[in-house]
Amino acid sequence: MQPIATAGVVVKPLQGVWRSRGYGWIVRFDAAGPALYHLAGDDCWRDPRPATDPDGVLKLWRPVGAAIETAGEVDGTLYRFDRLKALPTACSTVRPWTPRRTLAVVADTFAAYYPLSKERGLDWSARRRDALAALGETPDDAALWKALAVLLRGIDDAHVELDGLVDGQMRTRRLGEAAVLLRAKAAPGGEAAWGRAWRAQVLAAPLGVREAAGGRILWGRQGKVGYLAVNAMGGFDPRAGDDDTALLDATLDEAMAAFAGAEAVIVDVSGNRGGYDVIARRIAARFADRRREVGSKIAVGGDGLVQPLLITPSDRPRYLGPVWLLTSQVTVSAGETFTLSMRALPNVRQAGETTRGALSDQLQKPLPNGWRFALPAEVHRDAGGRVVEGEGIAPQAPLPVFPPGEPPNDPQGHARALEWVLGRIYGR
Fold first, then answer.
1. 32, 10 in Cβ contact below 8 A?
2. Are the CB atoms for 183 and 189 separated by under 8 Å?
3. CA–CA distance, 383 with 251 (Å, rounded to integer)
4. What is the pLDDT of residues 211-247, one digit of tens each?
5. Taking Cα atoms as reference points, which of 90, 94, 118, 97 lies closest to residue 24?
6. What is the DSSP string of 232-291?
7. What's the Cα-to-Cα distance from 261 to each of 78, 121, 221, 281, 294, rounded to whole Å?
8. Which of 360, 344, 359 minimizes the C-alpha distance to 396?
9. CA distance 44 to 205
10. Sheet of 161-166: strands edge to edge?
C-alpha cells in the first residue's frame, strides 16, 4: 500500500468523494486532507472531532478496480470505498439536532451495522417503534436518554457505548461489563480495590513475578515455569503514546530471554481490558513459529469481503515451547484478538473462562450536539470458521477464574486457576 498524502498533499487519484462499504462513512479528499462524514439512513453529518482522520484509518491506500482500499497500518484492517460524483446533499444540509433526529440516527446505524442482529434476536424496526413511543411528543434530552435505553435494552456488548449531556450533566452508559466487574463496582473500594487485590495475589504467587511497562505487564520465572500477564494492549509508557511499543518490546525481550529453556510459560490475559489489535498481534508474535492465518472478519453491511487475520513471527526473541493461556469473562476486545491469535498456535492451550465476545473494532459515531455512541460493526471468526463475535472464545480446559459466589475484591478463584495450571505443568 502507498501513503494517502505525499509531502502533506493527498495524491490526485484519491481527490474527490468516496463512500465506504460498511461502517457508514463518506470521505471527501481535498488536496489538504480528508473530511469525514457519517451516514445513517437518509441522514448525514460531518464528524465533529478536530482530527482529519480521527479513527486512524486513512493513512495508506491502494486501488482495487474502480474502488479503493484504505488502512491505518500495514497488515491492518482494510476499508473499501467507492467513488461518488459529489457529496450527498444531506451531508451539507444544516438541520437542528433534536432528540428525535438523534434517536433516528442511532436506530438507523444499529439497524445497518450491528453484527448478527438476526442471530441475536434483535428486531431493530420494533425497537425503533418502542423507542419513539417512549420519546413522546415533546421530548427533551432526559426523554431521549430514556428512549435510547429502550432502543438498546437487553444488549450485553462491551463495544456498545452511549454518552450524552442531560440537564447539564454528562451521562455514560456501557452495556457489556463482566459480571465480576459489576460486583466489584458495587462493593467497598469499587473496581480499583478489585484490581489491587488481583495484582497483590499475582505478585504473591510462587512465580517470581515483577511489574513492568507501567504496571501493564507482570512477568517472572520460578524454576521451570515462566509467567507473563498482560492487562492491557497499550499504554505501557506514560511518557509516550498509548500505542507506543518501545517499552513493550524491551520488556518482552527481557522476559523471553528469561523464559529460554522453560518447560512451560503461563500467559495470563484474564484481566485484559483490550486496547490495540496491532499490539495484541505484536505480543502473540513472540510465541509464533511461522506465519499463520488465525481467523477472519467481515464488515457488516459491506460487500461480503472476508479479511484474513494473520500473525507473523517476531524477529525479536521468542518462546516456542508449551504455553498455557489463561482467559476469563473480563478478557475483551484486543485481549480477545490476542486470544484468537494464540489459539491458532499449536503450542498453546487455553484454560479458564470464555472471553466476552466483543472482538470487532469499535465504530465511533460522535454527533455535533456533543452526544456520542459507539458499536461493533464486524463479525469475527476463528481459524476454524466458527463465529466468535458475540459468543466469545471458549477454553479447551474450562475452569472458574472469577466465580459468582466469590467476594468481588478477593479474587481467590484466579489464584486457584493458576494453581490448577501449575499442577498440570508439574504433573500434580
1. yes
2. no
3. 29
4. 999 899 999 999 999 999 999 999 999 888 888 899 9
5. 90
6. -BS---TTS-TT--HHHHHHHHHHHHHHTT-SEEEEE-TT---B-HHHHHHHHGGG-SS-
7. 39, 50, 11, 23, 26
8. 344
9. 54
10. 169-174, 161-166, 372-376, 362-366
